[in-house]
Amino acid sequence: MFDRNSLSTVKVGVFSKSCHTRHSLIVSDIHFASIRRWRPYSQRKKNLALEEQKREDLLREAVAYRRRLKLAFQLQTPEVPQTAQAVALSAGACDLTELFAGIRSDGSWSIYFGEEPVIQFTPAGELRRLFIDNRKYRVVAGKLVELTRSKRGGRIELIHQHISAEAERALRDRCLKLLQHALQMLKAGHFTQMGQVPADDLTLLQDLHAFLEQRDSLGI
């Protein structure tokens, strides 16, 4: 929690020109950290797929996904055609041991590979948003654009920056390889289901399998 006094201390830390500037900046950092921790989940769930902070319990907190499940993959299995190490090298550094999948009320899927990448789809199964390599992207008029933060008039805005066709293709290919890896693990049965919501949803895992099958055949 924080109050107005702590917020004013942040301002002093940022703008102070006294001999105690260094100390004030340290205090400022502490208060900014406490402000980030205080922010309730209700204020960040709208952009859940693009959040950078740790996702310690998505099964419990990610209520925007009315159906959701969490899987732990068993790596280095001979039955899987492409090893996890090969996928990791071709898809970039990421966590291939854990997967969270959620479905919103409109039928759109979001797939989390650990902290990142996070791949979000439209209800039609098309790529919508992406968080990878600590960068945010979204699809605008059929093209991936990078979202960057910019301060204007004391407000933080997200600015669209176009990327090259080659960069977009590379990102889409990396995401497709990750989804193919998840599909291979499901087909081989090399995973442990850590939990799901609702607990009595008997078709959730099958629906995830079918969704990944479609992405494998249609691309991303």
Structure, described:
37% of the residues lie in helices and 27% in strands. The protein is α+β, with helices and mostly antiparallel strands and 220 residues long. The termini are far apart.
What is shown here, in short?
This protein has helices at 4-15, 21-38, 58-61, 84-91, 165-188, 204-218; strands spanning 67-73, 98-103, 109-113, 118-121, 127-132, 135-140, 143-152, 155-162, 191-197. It is an alpha+beta fold. Helix 1 (4-15) crosses helix 2, helix 4 (84-91) runs antiparallel to helix 5 and helix 5 crosses helix 6 (204-218).
What topology emerges from the helices and strands here?
Blueprint: H1 4-15, H2 21-38, H3 58-61, E1 67-73, H4 84-91, E2 98-103, E3 109-113, E4 118-121, E5 127-132, E6 135-140, E7 143-152, E8 155-162, H5 165-188, E9 191-197, H6 204-218
Antiparallel strand pairs: 1-2, 1-9, 2-3, 3-4, 4-5, 5-6, 6-7, 7-8
Keywords:
single chain, 220 residues, alpha+beta, nine-stranded antiparallel β-sheet, 9 strands, globular, disordered N terminus
Biggest sheet overview: 9 strands, antiparallel
In DSSP terms, counting alpha (H) and pi (I) runs of 4 or more, how many helices?
A: 6
Net shape: globular
What is the string of helix and strand elements? Answer: HHHEHEEEEEEEHEH
Strand order of the largest sheet: 8-7-6-5-4-3-2-1-9
Instruction: Assess the beta-strand content as a share of residues.
Output: 25-35%
What percentage of residues falls in helices of 4 or more residues?
25-40%
Radius of gyration: 20 Å
Q: What is the β-strand count?
A: 9
Class inferred from helices and paired strands: alpha+beta
Uncertain segments:
1-46, 48-53, 76-81, 88-93
Mean pLDDT: 75
